[in-house]
Amino acid sequence: MEKDTESEPTSSYAYNLMKEMKLDEEEILHRKAWLEFEEPDVNRLLELNDMAQGYATEVIESLYDHFLKFDDTKKFFEDPQVLNRVKNLQKKYFLRLTNGNYDDQYIQERIKIGSVHASIGLDVKWYLGAYGFYLRAVGKRIFKAFKSNPEKALESYFSLEKLVYMDIGLAIDTYIYQREATIKIQQEAIRELSTPVLQLREELLILPIIGAIDSQRARQLTEQLLHAIRDKRAKVVVIDITGVPTVDSRVANHLVQTVDASRLMGATLIITGLSAEVAQTLVTIGVDLAKINTVGDLQGGIEEAERILGYHVTKSLEDDSK
Amino acid sequence: MKVPILKQGNILIATIQSALTDQDLISLKDNLSHQVIQHRSHGVVIDITELDVMDSFSTRTLRNIASILKLRGADTVIVGMQPDVAFAMVQLGLTLPNVKTARDLEEGLTLLK
Questions:
Q1: Domain range for B42
Q2: What is the CATH number of the domain that holds A144?
Q3: Which chain B residues are Cβ-neighbours of A222 within 8 angstroms?
Q4: Closest residue of chain B to A222, computed from CA coordinates
Q5: Chain B residue at shortest CA distance from A220
Q6: Do A194 and A210 touch, CB atoms closer than 8 A?
Q7: Are B102 and A262 a contacting pair at CB < 8 A?
Q8: Which residues from A are below 8 Å from B103, CB to CB?
Q9: For residues B51 and B69, what is the distance between their CA atoms, to the nearest angstrom?
Q10: pLDDT grade, residue A1 (50/70/90)?
Q11: A4 in a domain, yes or no?
Q12: How confident is the model at residue A301 (pLDDT cuts 50, 70, 90)?
């Protein structure tokens, strides 16, 4: 159902979205088959069209009266111009329901609507409620019109229901797809931010690790580090794990693997900042850290790295202030 | 593809230029162990920069080459391992514990001097 078209994406956007969501012809047929939406349903809906023309305005008006009763939905229609335009769009959709041709174009329109609603932040519950409202309003009128033939009325109503369920499915899938896409982008951003590899001197990198490490992060960390070693031609890398609250055997093994892999590439790894608890845990769980070069704190680690690289850092004794 | 072995002073340099078959690796092993004596070399650098896949056989062969050359009186340095190769190897538990490594040919040569 149309609410606001100001932020309406272009139709090529909806087309791309449809492709991304893998809503191809086969999938659409599959969805229709699952809803048992068949040719007779299309015909029955077409028959309703004349009738729908008659009561469309009435139904839409009552739907928006209903919307305006709730603060959460009312806020979307503060501007009377918006309300008017949205009503018109809504009416178009309402009549579209009984207009046949439930093809690609139709699906694209539904996806577009779903994505508009997701982007303006209209919750699914309002959306579902509005569809319920529709079905009740139209159902009442169908049964009234086919008073003499209740069986026909029920069939027509079911046809409409199937189509509405398909539309709901498409819209909600669009909601979910868009939210998942956002989550994915954010996750990647967090992951990249969480493992900065810093160059301290020529051939010397530091990798401060902050926060808990799980297998996935450890793996990513290792890969990023190894590539940084090659790209920045590092000879020594200091990994500081002061900010890592707990280290379990899996994380410890990852550290050992990282040390081994770096050595294979010709770089030396120094691990600093093992807290008392972490050191005790490692000894208790019996991780073999003999191969790992550890230094108490980051300062010590950097000094050790400088020694390996042959730097002599001395404090200047000259008086710069004259 | 055969691996060319170059002599640079008293060091031999073997540069692997493409993926090797098991047979190529074995002949590399034979050639190196011969030439080390022939040229009275005290060090060998094996450059694997171009290798993007290493299986357990090539790992084992490299380790064997290092051990054999040691017995023949020469040190072995493996240089230029790619990050993905290094990561894959340690995941398989293949860490080449007794083989020297360096970042590139230059550093490998320095290490042997």
A1: 5-112
A2: 1.10.490.10
A3: 87
A4: B87
A5: B87
A6: yes
A7: no
A8: 229, 233, 235, 265-267
A9: 22
A10: very low
A11: no
A12: very high
CA distance A196 to B113: 36
Q: Is A264 within 8 Å of B91 when comparing Cβ atoms?
A: no
Q: Do A257 and B79 touch (CB under 8 A)?
A: no
Q: Under 8 Å CB-to-CB from A124, ≥6 apart: which residues?
A: A172, A175
Answer whether B103 sits within 8 Å of A267, measured CB to CB.
yes
Domain boundary among A156, A189, A222: A189
Please give the pLDDT value at position B92: 84
CB atoms B101 and A260 under 8 Å? no
Report the chain B residue with the minimal C-alpha distance to residue A226.
B83
Rounded to the nearest 5°, which phi and psi values hold at A125?
Answer: -60, -40
Domain limit, last residue, from A189, A221, A242: A189
Query: What is the CB-side half-sphere exposure of residue A101 using CA atoms within 13 A?
Result: 8
Helix segments in A8-123, DSSP class H: 11-20, 25-34, 39-68, 71-74, 80-96, 104-120
Q: pLDDT, tens digit, for every residue of A177-222?
A: 988 888 888 887 777 666 788 999 999 999 998 887 877 788 888 8
Q: Which domain holds residue A238?
A: 198-309
Residue B5 forms beta bridges with which residues?
A: B14
* Mutation for testing the A interface, residue in B78, B103, B107 having most A CBs under 10 Å: B103
- Whether residue A156 is found in the same domain as residue A296: no
Q: What is the CATH number of the domain that holds B9?
A: 3.30.750.24
Cα dihedral across residues A71, A124, A188, A191: positive or negative: positive
- A262 contacts B86? CB cut-off 8 A: yes
Write out the two tokens for A89. Answer: 């769009």
pLDDT category of residue A6 using cuts at 50, 70 and 90: very low
Using a CB-CB cut-off of 8 Å, the residues of chain A touching B93 are none
Residue type, A212: A
Taking the CB of residue A39, how many other CB atoms lie within 10 A of it? 7
Question: A47, A28, A1: which is closest to A157 by C-alpha?
Answer: A47
User: Choosing among A220, A257, A265, A309, which should be mutated to test the B contact, i.e. which has the most B CBs within 10 A?
Assistant: A265
Hey, are the CB atoms on B83 and A229 less than 8 Å from each other? yes
Gap between the Cα atoms of B77 and B111, Å rounded: 8
